[in-house]
C-alpha cells in the first residue's frame, strides 16, 4: 500500500477516535485548569481547592522530551477553561499547536511582570552553543540573556504564580470569591512556615558541597542557601566532554564534594562510571514531585520532600 495512503488512513482513524471521545466525554468531567508540568499543578491545586478541578498532562516519570499527546490529552485541552504555561520556549511545540487549534485561554507565567522580575539569568550565556529545543533543560533566551525556566523551584515565583491563578479564578468563578481568597491566604501561610522550617532543617548541611546531574536547581539552592560544586551536564541528552568529566573526577578524588545527585527519570550511567572506586554518597532529587497527589498542600509537600532529599545525602560526614 502506498505510504501516503497509509498515513492518510491513520490520520482518519486518529481523528475519528478523537471525535468519538469528544462526543462521549462530558465537559464537566475534566479540569478547568490544565498545565503540562505537575509542580505547576501543585500551585494551581492550592488556589483551586474546593473551587474547580486541576489536571496535569505529563504523567509521573515522563518528560517533555519523551512524551507525545494522547487523544485523552486533547480532550483535556478542549474542555479546560485556562491552561497555565511557563513559556513558549519550554512547552513542547505540539502542545502549543493543540492550544491554538482549540483557541484556549492561556496564562504564560514567564511573561507576567512580577515573575519576569524574579527570573535568574546568566550574562555569560553563549548564543552560539548548541542547545536542545523545547526542553526544560534548555534555558529561555531573551535579548541574548538565558533565563532558568524551572520556575516552580522558586518559592518566591510560586507565590507570584499563586496570586496570578487567584486573580484568574476570581474572573472565571466570581461566585466562589470567599473560597478563593481563603485558599490564597492558606497558601501564603503554609509557604511562609515551610520556608522557615526548611531553612532551619537545612542549616547544618548547607555549606557542604555536592554535584547535581544538571543545572536545574538554582532557584531552590539560592533561596535556601545551598552551594553546589558543579554539575555533570548542562543539558541531559547532550554528551559531556571528557576533559570536563576528568576535572569533576579530580575534585571527587580530593573529596571536595559530599554527594552526587541524579534524578529518578534520568539515565545516570555517566555518574556510575565516573564514581567507580570513589567512596561518595549518591542521592536522587525529584524535580517533578513524583507520587505527590494534587491536593491543597501539594506544593509545600513538594518543597519539603526535595529538601529532605538534599539532607539525607549531605548529612553523611
UniProtKB/TrEMBL annotation:
The Swiss-Prot or TrEMBL record describes its family as follows: Belongs to the bacterial solute-binding protein 9 family.
Q: What is this protein called?
A: High-affinity zinc uptake system protein ZnuA
Q: Which GO cellular component terms are attached?
A: periplasmic space
Q: Could you state a single Gene Ontology molecular function term?
A: metal ion binding
Q: Does this UniProt record's set of keywords contain Lipid biosynthesis?
A: no
Protein keywords: Disulfide bond, Ion transport, Metal-binding, Periplasm, Signal, Transport, Zinc, Zinc transport
Cellular compartments annotated: Periplasm
Say yes or no: keyword Signal present.
yes
An annotated GO BP: zinc ion transport
Please give the function described in this protein's UniProt entry: Part of the ATP-binding cassette (ABC) transport system ZnuABC involved in zinc import. Binds zinc with high affinity and specificity and delivers it to the membrane permease for translocation into the cytoplasm.
Q: What is its main location?
A: periplasm
Amino acid at each position: 500500500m502506498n505510504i501516503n495512503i497509509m498515513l492518510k488512513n491513520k490520520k482518519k482513524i486518529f481523528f475519528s477516535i478523537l471525535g468519538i471521545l469528544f462526543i462521549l466525554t462530558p465537559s464537566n468531567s475534566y479540569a478547568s485548569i490544565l498545565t503540562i508540568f505537575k509542580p505547576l499543578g501543585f500551585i494551581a491545586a492550592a488556589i483551586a481547592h474546593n473551587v474547580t478541578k486541576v489536571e496535569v498532562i505529563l504523567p509521573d516519570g515522563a518528560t517533555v522530551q519523551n512524551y507525545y499527546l494522547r487523544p485523552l490529552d486533547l480532550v483535556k485541552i478542549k474542555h479546560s477553561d485556562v491552561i497555565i504555561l511557563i513559556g513558549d520556549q519550554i512547552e513542547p511545540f505540539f502542545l502549543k499547536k493543540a492550544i491554538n487549534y482549540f483557541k484556549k485561554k492561556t496564562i504564560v507565567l514567564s511573561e507576567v511582570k512580577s515573575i519576569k522580575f524574579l527570573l535568574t539569568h546568566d550574562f555569560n550565556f553563549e548564543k552560539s552553543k548548541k542547545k536542545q529545543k523545547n526542553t526544560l533543560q534548555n534555558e529561555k533566551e531573551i535579548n541574548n540573556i538565558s533565563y532558568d525556566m524551572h520556575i516552580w523551584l522558586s518559592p518566591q515565583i510560586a507565590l507570584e504564580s499563586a496570586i496570578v491563578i487567584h486573580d484568574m479564578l476570581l474572573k472565571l468563578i466570581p461566585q466562589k470569591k470567599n473560597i478563593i481568597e481563603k485558599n490564597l491566604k492558606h497558601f501564603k501561610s503554609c509557604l511562609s512556615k515551610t520556608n522557615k522550617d526548611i531553612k532551619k532543617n537545612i542549616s547544618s548541611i548547607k555549606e557542604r558541597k555536592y554535584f547535581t546531574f544538571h543545572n536545574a536547581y538554582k532557584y531552590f539552592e539560592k533561596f535556601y542557601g545551598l552551594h553546589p560544586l558543579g554539575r555533570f551536564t548542562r543539558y541531559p541528552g547532550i554528551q559531556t566532554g571528557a576533559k570536563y568529566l576528568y576535572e569533576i573526577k579530580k575534585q571527587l578524588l580530593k573529596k571536595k564534594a559530599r554527594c552526587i545527585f541524579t534524578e529518578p527519570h534520568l539515565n545516570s550511567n555517566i555518574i556510575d562510571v565516573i564514581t567507580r572506586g570513589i567512596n561518595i554518597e549518591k542521592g536522587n532529587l525529584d524535580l517533578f514531585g513524583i507520587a505527590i497527589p494534587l491536593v491543597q498542600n501539594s506544593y509545600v509537600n513538594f518543597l519539603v520532600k526535595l529538601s529532605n532529599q538534599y539532607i539525607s545525602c549531605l548529612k553523611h560526614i
